[in-house]
Write a structure and sequence with these properties.
Blueprint: H1 2-11, E1 20-21, H2 32-48, H3 53-70, E2 78-81, H4 84-98, E3 104-108, H5 113-121, E4 126-129, H6 138-143, E5 149-155, H7 167-176, E6 180-184, E7 203-207, E8 219-223, H8 225-230, H9 273-289, H10 291-309, E9 314-316, E10 329-334, H11 339-348, E11 351-352, E12 354-356, E13 359-363, H12 370-385
Parallel strand pairs: 1-11, 3-4, 3-5, 5-6, 6-7
Antiparallel strand pairs: 2-8, 7-8, 9-10, 10-13, 12-13
Helix pairs in contact: 2-9, 3-9, 4-5, 10-12
Length: about 375
């Protein structure tokens, strides 16, 4: 019965008809039902223009409420951002604008640039903790904190190695030190549970095109009420400020503008409601399967993947001994051969992976199966023999 269920899941992803696709950590294919929902939304514009703008706006608010429930917060703390870099640029500018003294942030060496570039570009020093065999201990992160440190900005799951950080323990430790905790959950949400209250997270972003099964649909952007009070947004667009009474457009001129106190202050302008319709469908699809069921499936697939890689002349770079530190991502190095050429050989044989940090990144998703992992391993074996 279980095998039948996952075969039905595969039917939702036509990519499985012609590729063994292990590149969801770059972008996941979208299910058929999500594509239909996006097409329906654009057809609505085709037929009716903006006559349903009000309904679209209401549905986007309902989606924000759904996402708020998924991370255990209030809808007032949820906004949409174009992507993680945009969200963190808001945060970096707010910190820089609000702080009259020199300060630094602590981050991790393996971070994707969207986690650190917005802060460094603002001239905020970032101290990077070095990994030990691909892993980061809580102690190593806390030891990097000095008298000028304001907080930690890091990913829940590292994009390259797939290492998954215990952000609940780190968040509790940082809260006890009165430190900010800024989290990039792009490589974990929505598959892995996020509880911003229990994890003491002040700011969280998660772009949806990886594990959100929705294509380029922007990013979830959470800020706590206390963060917004302490570090108000230093930029504004027309949807982020309070309009005159009885209007929804801030038509006042030379009268000053007041930002919304809720996360809507980060709204620069109109969202792509048609893509958000697809995102809404994708969240329902994931929640209907069950996120715990998805995580268990990922563990089963990656267990088998690790077993097959150990049969090859391969160095497994991702730390895999502790299942609580694992994710859908596995990073490997082909011993004695060229990883980039191996990825090209795989692609010629209809197996899609990617190069990250000079190594081969493999990411398993709910539409993958054990037969595809055999195909991946057999193809790598053939390449190693060439």
């Amino acid at each position: 019965m279980e095998d039948n269920f996952w075969e039905e899941v595969r039917d939702e992803f036509p990519v499985t008809n012609h590729l063994a696709y292990f590149q969801s950590a770059g972008m996941s294919p979208i299910p058929n039902q999500v594509l239909r929902k996006i097409n329906e939304a654009y057809l609505n514009i085709n037929q009716f223009g903006d006559m349903h703008f009000g309904a679209d706006l209401q549905r986007s608010d309902e989606l924000r409420a759904k996402l708020a429930d998924m991370i255990n917060t209030n809808v007032a703390n949820i906004a949409f951002s174009h992507n993680t870099s945009t969200a963190f640029s808001f945060i970096a500018a707010a910190l820089k604008h609000s702080m009259p003294f020199d300060f630094n942030l602590v981050s991790l060496k393996d971070e994707f640039p969207s986690t650190n570039v917005p802060f460094e570009f603002q001239g905020i020093p970032v101290k990077f903790v070095e990994p030990v065999k691909g892993s980061y201990s809580l102690e190593s992160i806390l030891d990097a904190i000095d008298e000028k440190t304001m907080g930690v900005v890091c990913s829940h799951v590292q994009y390259s190695t797939g290492f998954r950080l215990d952000i609940e323990k780190l968040g509790k430790a940082l809260a006890a030190m009165d430190m900010l905790f800024i989290v990039n959950a792009t490589q974990s949400f929505p598959y892995y549970e996020i509880d911003v209250e229990k994890m003491h997270i002040d700011v969280l972003t998660a772009s949806f095109h990886k594990w959100g099964l929705s294509g380029i649909a922007g990013a979830l952007f959470y800020t706590s009420e206390s963060f917004r009070r302490g570090y108000p947004n230093s930029m504004a667009g027309w949807l982020g400020v309070v309009p005159p009474e009885g209007d929804f457009i801030p038509t006042q001129k030379n009268e000053g503008y007041k930002q919304f106190e809720h996360a809507g202050q980060y709204n620069f302008g109109t969202s792509n409601f048609q893509v958000l319709a697809g995102l809404d469908c994708a969240m329902d699809y994931i929640n209907n399967i069950g996120r715990e069921k998805i995580r268990n499936r990922i563990i089963a697939l990656t267990d088998y993947l690790i077993e097959k890689m150990r049969e090859l002349p391969v160095e497994i770079i991702t730390p895999v001994s502790n299942v609580d530190e694992r994710s859908p991502i596995l990073l490997i190095n082909m011993i004695g051969t060229d990883n980039a050429e191996a990825v090209k050989f795989l692609e010629k044989n209809k197996v899609v992976t990617s190069i990250r940090a000079g190594n081969i990144r493999i990411s398993c998703n709910i539409f993958n199966n054990f037969k595809e992992i055999d195909q991946l391993a057999n193809t790598l074996g053939l390449f190693a023999e060439m």
